[in-house]
User: Fold this.
Amino acid sequence: MSGGLQYEATRARRRHEPCEKLHRREFVDHQIKHYIRACGMRALVVATDGKGAFVRSARDPDIVTNALRMQYGSGLALARVWWGCPEEMTALQLAWSATSQRVDATIRGLLAAALNHEIMLVPDHVVRSRACDFIERVNLEFEHLCRSTGMRELTQAFMAARRRRPSLQYEEFARKVRLRLLYAIAKELDT
Assistant:
């Protein structure tokens, strides 16, 4: 089969299948942020300029780090990120943000304070790993939805959305469906 015919045959068969773009790093990072939001977690961030440590709490560590860089200089580096309950992360941040210590002393102090107050600090790499596993579950659910009788309903929903917004592409529609699935599954697991 020639290249052109093979391309046409593949394109015709895969008309409404998810696109490779859905697995790009930017989209996965976007899904991780939505997973964190769906779980209701907040970050406790420790940044350092080499001399002292800065402790902040926020939903997005990147935004906090960039704000600290604007305030204290571009040499500021992220030292640690933990995730946990918003109230507990805010309490730890308020307790430690006024102190000016070296980064290793700050980290040890935060860990000791969390242990003393029975606050769970989940490291960033653990949350990201859990998020990736959860995203894989969402992807499997989406694929199951596409293979089952729901594909017809999914196609109808896409066509209805496309009538409202003619420039809508299937990849964008599928991305929104996956995000809705992510929140629905997270809510189901929370209850």
Summary: The chain has two domains: 19-37+126-190, 40-123.
